[in-house]
Design goal:
CATH superfamily: HesB-like domain
Distance between the termini: 20 Å
Pfam families: Fe-S_biosyn
Oligomer: single chain
InterPro entries: ATAP_core_dom, HesB-like_dom_sf
Protein name: Fe-S cluster assembly iron-binding protein IscA
Organism: Kroppenstedtia eburnea
Number of strands: 7
CATH class: Mainly Beta
Helix content: 10-25%
Number of helices: 2
Order of helices and strands: EHEEEEHEE
């Protein structure tokens, strides 16, 4: 699984994990959400690592996901926007299943 993260986003995530950590094994979980054909979106959670989760470290930040989400997370690009105070999560080539039911959409 390949996740790219800016140094600024990595620093912000490390701060958030430090604030939340109280002896727990916490990691960042990116959750793929449905938002229509051709427009993936993601939720970001700070969560405990589950026994069957896959864990990778990127820029000193632990990321975790179930095996079933690895294809969705491979290629993710993350950054932190100082002006908005939000993370941006972008997937340049999301793995669509080809079953888009909206007219005129060509996912893939």
């Amino acid at each position: 699984m390949n996740i790219r993260i800016s140094p600024l986003a990595a620093a912000r995530l490390k701060v958030l994990l430090h604030w939340e950590e109280d002896g727990e094994n916490l990691a960042v979980r990116l959750v793929p959400l449905t938002s229509g054909c051709g427009t993936p979106s993601f939720a970001l959670e700070l969560t405990e690592v589950r026994p069957d989760d896959h864990v990778i470290w990127v820029e000193g930040v632990p990321f975790t996901c179930p095996e079933s989400d690895q294809a969705w997370l491979n290629g993710i690009e993350m950054d932190w926007n100082r002006e908005t105070g939000r993370f941006s999560i972008h997937h340049p080539h999301p793995p669509f299943d080809g079953n888009c039911c909206l007219p005129g959409q060509n996912p893939g």
